[in-house]
Amino acid sequence: MDRRHRVFKSGLKLLNVSGLGRFLAPVTQGCGAVFMMHHVRPASDNAFRPNAHLSITPEFLRFSVNRIREKGYEILHLDEAVDQLKTGYGSKRYAVLTFDDGYRDNLEVAYPVLKELDAPFSVFVTSGLIDRTSELWWVAIERLVAENSELVISGQSGEGPISCATPEEKNRCFDRLMDILGKDVQEPDQRAITRALAERYGLDLGALANEYMMTWDELRELAADPLVTIGAHTHDHFALARLSEGDAWADIDKGMQRIEQELGLRPRHFAYPYGKAFSVCDRDADYLERSGFSSALTTFPGVLNSASARTPMKLPRISLNGLYQTSDILDQYLTGAPFALYKAANWLAGGFGIKSSFSRLFPSTR
What we know:
Layout: H1 3-18, H2 20-28, E1 32-37, E2 39-40, E3 55-56, H3 58-70, E4 74-75, H4 78-87, E5 94-101, H5 104-116, E6 121-125, H6 127-131, H7 137-147, E7 150-151, E8 162-163, H8 167-184, H9 187-200, H10 205-212, H11 216-223, E9 228-232, H12 245-263, E10 269-271, H13 282-290, E11 295-301, E12 315-319, H14 327-335, H15 337-349, H16 354-359
Parallel strand pairs: 1-5, 1-12, 2-3, 4-5, 5-6, 6-9, 10-11, 11-12
Antiparallel strand pairs: 7-8
Helix pairs in contact: 1-14, 2-15, 3-5, 3-14, 7-8, 7-9, 12-13
């Protein structure tokens, strides 16, 4: 766990120990919360796990559902929660459970737990990953770094071989590659570089998708249960705001169409890939609303409140993060206090550069 994660975790523990979170809760906890997850699978003892934040254990999933209910929340279908949000507060607070991308462990590991607990949940499907036509690029980069002692990225000016022989070098190499692919190059180039690296170092991207992602038949099995809501997550998992208007909307439309073709249902809810400020914009939020979606979920950290009803195409979520699988941190999330303080810090920081540093304390997601 790096320094910023340690700072974040320490801050949440301080809120818990000091009682400040509980003190602020009547004002900050809002009417509900949407929780975001990716993988649910047994704990790993691998030393190199740069995507560990995307994975929680089935034990923590079970604990979280029970704890959320113990705190007085009703776990609702996303349809019900959005309707309740738009019509005003209900008699009790509510929570929504969501999973992004369409990983097979959602079916094999998470689903049995949630079925047993009678807890409804949503899965946001990236149709290109299910079709095996898009690249699971962040997993590919992790695998490439793990299996090699150095990597060379062609076409990157001034970028020589990047050593990844030791655990420390592997972490630095992964971070460097994520900066290049996630920030320095355009979305299509990100995938072209990933494909070139995979070919050069013998990584089968199709086999990687087969290892991680559900098939359409598996999704049909999941979608047949009334407990499950299927949502859209684009076709190619691009950061929409970094695309042209036409390309962004085409990616949204294709994802929606493929789900309708394969599952016979038209998604009513959408989750932005990445879901952060660099990937979410008003242009696409307006398009989603015109396309008939009832809600669109970001990864902006926060709880639902009356203000959220005015922006249903930019709803916040709380990440159940693999680096913070503890009861005290979950309890602080439910108070809403960390997110209120985050917003206050953003407001106070203004243009002095503090805002961007503070915002990085909230772990990113893919």
